[in-house]
From TrEMBL:
Database matches in CDD domains: USP_KdpD-like
Name the record gives this protein: Histidine kinase
Organism annotation: Alkalicoccobacillus plakortidis
Keywords attached to this entry: Kinase, Transferase
PANTHER family listed in its UniProt record: SENSOR PROTEIN KDPD
Alphabetized Pfam families for the sequence: Usp
GO MF term (any one): phosphorelay sensor kinase activity
Domain UspA: 11-129
């Protein structure tokens, strides 16, 4: 059961999008919510359904969910398969949850893009003028994982004497079924295999068709060790 907040006249909404700065935004929002002793909400919006997200994006969502639980957020809101503009969705969520403060990351638009296409911040201010905004600067030198993996495909893990091997056709020896995300730029089956185990999403590293020890090649992908 969540602890009752002392103040209900303030509510914080953190808006996150793919990239390494989402975690930073959630931590900033949690800090403000703790100081004000008020509810915290975390929101992400995507036009794709959740089950069509690639390995990097789903890993970010999983991590944001963990952080939301860790910081005792009232709700981690995933608006997937969303056809409305992100600004409209943020405004809807803000009104629904009586949000008074919103935390967003600084966009990487150039001045010319802002002139020709409009500032995301200005559009938000027109949609929800009753909310205070905190714009957190983002380090543009930090790169995300976009482009590191090909689109996921159905695959299976088969157990043998040495551990687990990946296969792409089903057999009665298949122990786990999931999605394999192959690293780009390689002819070998290297990448990430993602599957459900004990009602929890697991990610393991694959090198040359075999499950290996967890790596830290991609810090946002929380790889685990698969025990026999």
């Amino acid at each position: 059961m969540k602890k009752a907040k002392g103040r209900m006249d303030e509510s914080i909404l953190v808006c996150v999008y793919y990239g390494p700065n989402g975690e930073r935004l959630i931590k900033r929002g949690a800090k403000i919510a703790t100081m004000l002793d008020c509810p915290l909400y975390v929101l992400t919006v995507d036009a794709l359904p959740y089950d069509e997200l690639d390995a990097e994006k789903s890993a970010y969502v999983d991590r944001w969910k963990e952080l939301s639980e860790e910081y005792d957020a009232e709700e981690f809101i995933v608006r997937d398969n969303e056809k409305k503009p992100a600004v409209k969705v943020i405004a809807e969520v803000a009104r629904e949850h009586h949000i008074t403060q919103i935390i967003i990351g600084q966009t990487a638009k150039s001045r010319w893009e802002e002139i020709t296409k409009g500032s995301f911040m200005n559009v938000l201010l027109r949609e929800i003028p009753f909310v205070d905004f905190h714009v957190v600067s983002c380090d543009r030198a930090i790169k995300g994982l976009e482009g590191h993996f090909e689109k996921g495909c159905r695959a299976y893990l088969v157990e043998d004497e040495e551990g687990y091997a990946i296969m792409f056709s089903h057999t009665n020896k298949a122990k786990y079924e999931g999605i394999f995300f192959k690293e780009t730029g390689t002819d070998f089956n290297n990448g990430i295999f993602k599957f459900m185990k004990h009602n929890r999403m697991i990610q393991v590293h694959v090198t040359d068709d075999r499950v290996t020890e967890p790596t830290k090649i991609y810090p946002t992908l929380k790889e685990e060790k698969l025990q026999k």
